[in-house]
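Supplementary Methods. Inverse-folding protocol.

Structures were first reduced to a discrete structure-token string of length 420. This string, shown here, constituted the complete conditioning input.
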């Protein structure tokens, strides 16, 4: 058996509130390793800037944990990579002469092994871990619940997980995931395109037992459900709502508009739903087709109205600089927002991430990837203007910036924009 330290890296620039949503991946890995008889410590640096995180490594209690470790593992997205490498470089200096393995896991190593190994700084890594810690052929209902006990001493999040910064049931909140993967294949998303991520759903009873533990042991009644689509299976969704109602919880989640109808919306209200997020991305039919989004714009309008009429706040997700976008695209998106009046809009600048079809075959989507250095992959709309890592072959770079500025100015001036 081994001694592990699992590291949540310092927050990336795209996160406005880095402590709002705990890293479930690290907590699942910790539970798995502990059940195998290993010793595990979690070093959560999510509240730190990179400079603060590097300074924290010098603290006696942190150094002690690192020195006792045989394996130090990091969870890493593409946007976290440079921060993870900086931490590993500092740790190697601190632990010079000690034999310790540094392992990078999470979405980025799972989808970009060749890109990472081609980099000179990959020599700092001992190995990459890709896929899920449980392997491939496992029953999702037998997976141990996330190891929240390891972070309970610092308290669960007191940040609001809801639009407008409101709280509905006390101040504590937690994240939970009731399914893994996605059966859809949007060209800009890796969830449905990566072979190791099959779509699997936990049973309503299994989810209920985890929620009851969080309510009874930690006094948490507010939840951010991290599924790609909470309502993909209607029967299970209705079963979940019955359990949620009995527990008296408040929650927000994401769903596709084609998974929601009058019945599911009313059941969601009964189950304590306060907010639903819908990935619209664009209402331009050319963009929808190119991204393989399969969005019915008319149905989206109806579902948004249905949610608002039943007291559910609506969060919409859009993107700018998307394949196929023109100036008319931006104006159509703005008009859709003005017409449907969501409570909040999260808008990101499109970037092609590893594992997505836009990364694998950019020419098919009218893209030219200019830069594969992920430190240049800035996706938050509120970030400084930097040259985008892609060119859209149908518009100039100047038009891309103009479209982005138009959307950003509208969202900020109208009060719809959600930073983060």
């Amino acid at each position: 058996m081994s001694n592990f330290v699992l590291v949540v890296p310092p927050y990336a620039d795209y996160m406005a509130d880095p402590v709002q949503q705990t890293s479930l991946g690290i907590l699942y890995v910790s539970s798995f390793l502990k059940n195998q008889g290993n010793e595990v410590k979690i070093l959560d640096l999510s509240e730190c800037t990179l400079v603060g995180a590097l300074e924290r490594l010098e603290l006696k209690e942190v150094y002690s944990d690192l020195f006792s470790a045989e394996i130090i593992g990091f969870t890493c997205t593409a946007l976290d990579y440079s921060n993870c490498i900086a931490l590993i470089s500092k740790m190697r200096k601190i632990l010079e002469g000690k034999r310790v393995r540094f392992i990078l896991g999470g979405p980025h190593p799972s989808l970009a092994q060749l890109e990472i190994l081609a980099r000179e700084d990959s020599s700092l890594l001992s190995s990459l871990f890709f896929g899920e810690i449980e392997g491939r052929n496992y029953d999702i209902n037998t997976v141990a619940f996330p190891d929240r006990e390891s972070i309970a001493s610092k308290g669960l999040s007191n940040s609001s997980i809801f639009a407008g910064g409101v709280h509905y049931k006390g101040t504590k909140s937690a994240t939970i995931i009731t399914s893994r993967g996605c059966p859809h294949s949007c060209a800009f998303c890796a969830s449905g395109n990566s072979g190791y991520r099959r779509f699997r759903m936990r049973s309503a009873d299994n989810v209920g037992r985890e929620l009851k533990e969080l309510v009874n042991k930690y006094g948490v009644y507010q939840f951010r459900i991290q599924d790609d689509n909470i309502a993909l299976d209607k029967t299970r969704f209705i079963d979940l709502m019955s359990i949620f109602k009995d527990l008296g919880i408040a929650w927000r989640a994401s769903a596709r508009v084609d998974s929601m109808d009058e019945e599911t919306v009313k059941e969601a209200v009964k189950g304590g739903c306060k907010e639903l997020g819908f990935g619209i991305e664009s209402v331009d039919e050319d963009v929808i087709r190119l991204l393989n989004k399969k969005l019915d714009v008319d149905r989206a309008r109806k579902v948004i109205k249905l949610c608002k009429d039943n007291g559910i706040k609506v969060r919409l997700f859009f993107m700018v600089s998307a394949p196929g976008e023109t100036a008319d695209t931006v104006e159509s998106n703005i008009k859709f927002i003005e017409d449907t009046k969501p409570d909040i809009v999260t808008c990101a600048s499109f970037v092609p991430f590893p594992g997505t079809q836009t990364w694998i075959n950019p020419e098919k989507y009218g893209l030219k990837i200019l830069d594969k250095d992920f430190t240049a992959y800035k996706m938050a709309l509120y970030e400084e203007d930097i040259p985008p890592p892609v060119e859209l072959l149908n518009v100039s770079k100047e038009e891309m910036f103009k479209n982005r500025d138009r959307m950003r100015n509208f969202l900020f001036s109208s009060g719809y924009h959600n930073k983060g």
